[in-house]
Amino acid sequence: MKFLSLTILSALIVVFLNPFFPFWVVMVLIGILSAVLGAKAFVSFLAGGIGMGLSWLGQTVFLSYQTGSSLPDQMAEIMGLGSGVALSAITGVIGLMLGGFSACSGSLFRKLFKNKPDNIYKG
Fold first, then answer.
1. Is the dihedral of CA 17, 62, 9, 116 positive or negative?
2. pLDDT at residue 123 is higher than 70
């Protein structure tokens, strides 16, 4: 349940706040969200990565098809990628890594303040 809610909420944060704020503000918000929800580090990485990666991929595909611009293809040619589809895929992978690491950082930050038992041997 934490995985699904973190994925959906991080995607909503990216879709609605990324046009107004820089990417690092969105990363901080995803980290805070992950810390509040309290999922484990690997689950947080996957959920935050999938949420942000799919959002960035969806936004690039939507904008390139909505405008009908040849700019993505021209930028991909300049970068030596071949087509705009490859550029969109790389954008999605970068979003996956940024969202994943920010959610994982939030989860590990929460773990820093978790109480640990003093007497582990109970003797």
1. negative
2. no
Exposure b/e, 28-53, CB count within 10 A at least 16 = b: ebbbbbbbebebebebbbbbbbbbbb
List, in sequence order, the alpha helices (H) in the chain.
2-17, 23-37, 41-67, 71-79, 84-112
What average pLDDT is seen over the chain?
90
Q: What mean pLDDT do residues 12-16 have?
A: 95
Predicted TM-score (pTM) of the model is: 0.84
Cα–Cα distance measured from residue 106 to residue 36, given in angstroms and rounded to the nearest whole number:
8
Does the residue 85 lie in any domain?
Answer: yes
Range of the domain at 50: 2-112
